[in-house]
Amino acid sequence: MKVTVVGAGNVGATCANVLAHRDFLQEVVLLDIKEGTAEGKSLDSWQQAPIDYYSTKVTGITNDYSKTADSDVVVITSGLPRKPGMSRDDLISTNANIVKSVTESIAQYSPHAVIIVVSNPLDVMTYCAYLAAKKDSKKVFGMAGILDTARYRAFLADEIGCSPKDIQAILMGGHGDTMVPLPRYTTVSGIPVTELITPDKLTAIIQRTKVGGGEIVNLLGTSAWYAPGAAAAQMVEAILKDEKRIFPCCAWLTGEYGFKDIYLGVPVVLGKNGIEKIIELQLNQEEKTLLNESALHVKEVMDVLDQMKRVNA
Ligand SMILES: NC(=O)c1ccc[n+]([C@@H]2O[C@H](COP(=O)([O-])OP(=O)(O)OC[C@H]3O[C@@H](n4cnc5c(N)ncnc54)[C@H](O)[C@@H]3O)[C@@H](O)[C@H]2O)c1
User: Could you state one GO biological process linked to this protein (predicted)?
Assistant: First the structure.
């Protein structure tokens, strides 16, 4: 089993380091365009191995895709992160060029790889990778829902005064302020969350979740990395161990939830073939309206990418 992580910045290096700690892979290849970055972080990770007891070696590479050949899973994190005052959508033109060229190189050397996109704006960069990879959409999808749901679960754990481990939740829609947390599908060790928290507090947590990425950008001057890197690693593990885990992922829809030809966050089953199933929940009218609004926003940004392609064609 071989995994490549493209982009050895905050998110990519964290993802590789989390995978090393899980200790189920021989090697993780970490590739960056900036000379020395991937090599330096990989060496640091290997020097952590005797302390934290793992055997997975992270190998750093500067832009040589032949070293990524025959990867089973590739995580794409290359691209600019947000700065304060920016929306994810502001990154589109720079990151689209990066994601397109990276995906083409990956497709050349690892034609059968499952591709997980992390770069922002997430839904549209996943679409960009899908167009460049020219492969089954079940093998090209994005990481956002696990992170957004984790933020929601962490805020709930603080408010309820319980372990975040005991909070199960699902969240749908685009990776942006229009995301749709679903309190009807949120439980705390099987107890409906509405029995443990007042409606006002729940509404405030949902709002904080929607702008959870921006809260960190304002604190740090760049976007988050521990939780995003760990979320991508969790997807890699589910695929390579064929775990059939159910996660919210950014998936290509072909009629599910009434949407077609769009990448959107929905619950899926992840296994060795990538997305093995998209789960269709019976949403109520209010939830459907929120999901429609989110899909409309994602579609607008996808249209911007399509226009850019026409201009550059
Ligand atoms: N999906 C999510 O939930 C989520 C969460 C956090 C961050 N992100 C996004 O992930 C991306 C990475 O964030 P970060 O904080 O790691 O940024 P970063 O700046 O720390 O790292 C990005 C890395 O990509 C590298 N890079 C740029 N062009 C490249 C190319 N052509 N080939 C290979 N490497 C290249 C850079 O040298 C840099 O090391 C950003 O777009 C960010 O917005 C997404």
Answer: lactate metabolic process
How far does the centroid of ligand 1 lie from the alpha carbon of residue 119, in Å? 6
How much is the mean pLDDT over the chain? Answer: 96
Bridge partners of residue 76, in order along the sequence: 6, 117
Torsion of CA 295, 188, 19, 137, to 10 degrees: -30
Buried-exposed string 232-246: b where 16+ CB fall within 10 A, e elsewhere: bbbbbbbbbeeeebe
- The string of pLDDT tens digits covering residues 41-90 is 999 999 999 999 999 999 999 999 999 999 999 999 999 988 888 888 88
Residues recognised as catalytic: 175
Q: Is 122 in the pocket of ligand 1 (CB under 6 A)?
A: yes
Annotated ligand binding at 118? The verdict is yes
Check pocket membership of 141 for ligand 1, CB cut-off 6 A.
no
Rounded to two decimals, what is the model's pTM?
Answer: 0.97
Ligand 1 near 83 CB (within 6 A)? no
Structural domains in the chain plus CATH codes: 2-142 (3.40.50.720), 145-304 (3.90.110.10)
Identify the residue whose C-alpha is closest to ligand 1 atom 3: 144
